[in-house]
Sequence to fold (121 residues):
Amino acid sequence: MPQHVLMIDLVDDATLIQEYVAWHASGAVPDSVISSIRKNGITSMNIYRVADRLAMVIEVTDDFSFESKAASDLEDPDVVAWEALMARFQRPLPCAMPGEKWVNGELIFNLAAMIGGDQSC
Fold:
C-alpha cells in the first residue's frame, strides 16, 4: 500500500499544543471525521509530534487521490467544521504553497531498497 508522510507545525504555545493533543486522544475525534478519512481511501493514519512539529504517516489505497479527498472534505460539513477547529492550532510550514496546510514529505531513504528488498540481517 502506498504511504505518505505529511508535515505541519503547531502554533508555538504550550496550552494550545496540549489542547490540540487532547483533541486527538482516543474517542475525541468525531466519528464522522474518522468515517470520512476511511471512506476516502486512507487505511492507516498516525500523527507524531516533536515540540511544535507534526508528522502524519498515512497508508492509502492504490486509487487514493489527495485531490479527491480535498473535494470530498469540502462537501462534508463535519469535516469542514473539524478543519476550521484545527486551523487555530496549526501553522503551515514556511515552504507550504498558498492554501496548503499539510506538506507531503519527500522520501530520501528506504532501507528495503538499500538491501535489495531483503529485510533479514
